[in-house]
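Model the whole thing, not chain by chain.
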Amino acid sequence: DARVTQTPRHKVTEMGQEVTMRCQPILGHNTVFWYRQTMMQGLELLAYFRNRAPLDDSGMPKDRFSAEMPDATLATLKIQPSEPRDSAVYFCASGMGYEQYFGPGTRLTVT
Amino acid sequence: QKEVEQDPGPLSVPEGAIVSLNCTYSNSAFQYFMWYRQYSRKGPELLMYTYSSGNKEDGRFTAQVDKSSKYISLFIRDSQPSDSATYLCAMISSRDYKLSFGAGTTVTVRA
């Protein structure tokens, strides 16, 4: 049963620290998405890749967030420096065409 | 105004009732329409998807799309306590495969 995996599942850090979240997409999927979910804003698209090329990162605060896909099996989302307002659940999803399959998420708390 | 508006809920129904969930949208370019189910502290799970107008049935679930009214619905028949979750509608344009989500409706099915 192929699944998207994300690490870590939970992260608590202090304001100003760097946070790196990792995602392993489902093998063979050519699109990878990063989302953020909060109670106030719901699910927001931060960035996405197709065939490892970044296509859209307009949803990300550019000064502190960066997303990369160093190879087909790994996508990363970094926040540097982190702020309390970044506290949220971050989801990675992968897909082929219009179907997207979500990972379990990384629950980030910035104090 | 958001591209996708979803009835906010929450909904609480007795076991066996029919659950009706609705979304409206404003972007005429949306062609694929999805419903995701999200259990507490889990990632969204693709439940059903439809292309263009019409109905699609899968077991106890029926998805309806009316493109002329820009309105989609999900019906759950013979609801079970295990259906208790947040349901998110999502839509996608074939131009960029970016999902636009509704805010979600939390459903509780009482045993």
